[in-house]
Amino acid sequence: MDFLSILSIFVLACFVGYYVVWSVTPALHTPLMAVTNAISSVIIVGALIAAAAAGVPGAKWLGLLGVVLASINIFGGFAVTERMLAMYKKKG
Amino acid sequence: MHEAAPVNPWVALAYLIAGVCFILALRGLSSPATSRRGNRLGMVGMGIAVLTTIFTHLPLQEVTVFAPAADYTYWMQLTLIDSVTFAEILAAIAIGAVIGLTTAKRIAMTAMPQLVAAFHSLVGLAAVLVGVAAYLNPQAFGISSMVIPMIGQPFAVINPVSKVEMGLGVAIGAITFSGSVIAFLKLNGSMSGKPILLPGRHVINLATLAAILFLVAQFAHGQEGWPFWAVVVLSFAIGFLLIIPIGGADMPVVVSMLNSYSGWAAAAMGFTLGNTAMIVTGALVGSSGAILSYIMCRAMNRSFISVIAGGFGATDSGGGGAAATDRPWKRGSAEDAAFLMQQAEQVIIVPGYGMAVAQAQHALREMGDKLKEHGVRVKYAIHPVAGRMPGHMNVLLAEANVPYDDVFELEDINSEFAQTDVAFVIGANDVTNPAAKTDKTSPIYGMPVLDVEKAKTVLFIKRSMGGVGYAGVDNEVFYRDNTMMLLADAKKMVEEIVKAMD
After folding, report:
1. Which residues form the NAD(P) transhydrogenase alpha subunit C-terminal domain (chain A) (predicted)?
2. How many CA atoms, within 13 angstroms, populate the side-chain half-sphere of residue A34?
């Protein structure tokens, strides 16, 4: 993809983010932070590419370490969000 | 020329679907009823992104297999994935999964701000690692072009645009990491929440930021590697320097801001890799954190710049607080409080960070239940900056099984105090201070506050009369005729009130 199409996706996604986040109820702001934490660990994609690539051992090990760190975040972030959301109950 | 690997449309589509899942995950949070489905969609999106990457980037091995047949031997050439690399990656994911799941299961809800700060630091560090790996092995990331010189071997150079993206990604990642580590230490109490003010810190910070930008440009233009490493080192330093002058009460802003940074770091890496899922996520998380920071700043009537500049509450903690303790105030007992609330038609409970510290949320819910048995309407009023992160009080109340339709935001409930018999303030202080409405000299002037003093009676739980809130200002509410001070540990006091209600 060329730089301009990537930039277009980015700018449009910022607008989507703006409107979606304003619609989040303030009561769920803590789960919002936890889940955004989990999804920002999509950076694992980069770590996986580095870990899978042969040729430069240093890059490979950094990639594997990145996979560990991002995985902590992914599993921990989603699990803790799930735990919090399960606590929100309606009256009755 | 820029892309080493041909872009498979199915792969691009998979990343796009992952990005859409993430958008829907946040969309689900618009109501508690749809939130869990949203979270599951987030997991699906992550699964798609991870599997797509693994199966498109794993190295392949050619394996020759001989199959003996009746009269002659077949041989086949099979292409299999490199099982060693695959196993290494699975092991790395498994290690992360065990650590992450155990932490998520064990963490106390009151410790959520620390946990989120710790998670932010991991995203930041992961971004740095990915950036460095991309620098060391640009061909794997498809960000280099081969240069064939007249004499000698062809060599790979990283494209200048990718260098800028990488440099910025690594810088933001490093800032997120060191900043979050400091935020974690402060929130966890391992480090004093008091602002640490270095002389000339604004000059140092601005100079460091300028140096980082200059070095990124230098890195993009030149052929040397040192500016890249200098960017990494300086960014770690600036993250540290930016957060140490910020005080405990400003932590909701800091945590949101670091949340935003972790998003921008992911987005910058997404630019480097041309990966839709990363760019969409980065934009979502980046704007999410930015909006939360804005909401927190607005709730404190402070500009973002003044929070970042730091030092709130460091200088004016003495003044107003000390002299005012001589003023007359009324002290109440648990029995008085129980009696007053049982006679009431409506009670509004105002929780604050002190409730979290005392772990009083369960006792508080029990008190609410007792009151409801007596036919009292019980509501909870939450100020946006109550606690140490956005929505902190809501989670604690939810943990204690308080139904979420009993919990109201400031603007929805503030008009009700005038028709309320008892306002029950537990562990909150600055967010109830009427000086914010009347006293132009007060450091919290202009901050939206809960109008507790308009209730017929205010019950104010506080550890002692000596201390003041984080803003370091005295609270007029303590000395009003309709206020009764309940001086004790919040949890103990609430438990005594519950006992007195029997």
Report:
1. 7-90
2. 34
B126 and A41 within 8 Å at the Cβ level: the answer is: yes
Residue B71 tokens, joined: 């009269």
| Count of other CB atoms within 10 angstroms of residue B442 | 20
Q: Please check whether residues B280 and B214 belong to one and the same domain.
A: yes
Radius of gyration for the alpha carbons in chain B, expressed in angstroms and rounded: 28
The neighbour count for residue A81, using CB atoms within 10 Å, is 30
Active-site residue, B326 included:
no
Q: Mind listing the pLDDT tens digit for each residue in B232-290?
A: 999 999 999 988 888 777 888 889 999 999 999 999 999 988 888 999 999 999 999 99
- The CATH number of the domain where B451 resides is what? 3.40.50.1220
The one catalytic residue in B430, B474, B489, B502 is B430
Domain boundary (B57, B73, B90) is at: B57
- Alpha carbon of residue A2 to chain centroid: 24
Write out chain B residues lying below 8 Å of A6, CB-based. 270-271, 274, 279
A90–B277 CB contact, under 8 Å: no
User: Which of B130, B281, B406 has the CB atom closest to A50's CB atom?
Assistant: B130
pLDDT at B2 over 50: no
Could you give the C-alpha distances from B243 to B248, B253, B470, in angstroms and in order?
Answer: 11, 11, 17
Residue B179: count other Cβ atoms within 10 Å of its Cβ: 29
Are B257 and B210 within one domain? yes
Phi and psi, residue B479, nearest 5°? -100, 5
For chain A, list residues with pLDDT below 70: 92
Instruction: Quote the tokens at residue B399.
Output: 């943990």
Q: Please check whether residue B354 is in contact with residue B379, taking contact to mean a CB–CB distance below 8 angstroms.
A: no
Scanning the structure block, which residue is given the tokens 């277009």? A8
pTM score of the predicted model = 0.88
CA angle, residues B404, B410, B414, in degrees to nearest 5: 110
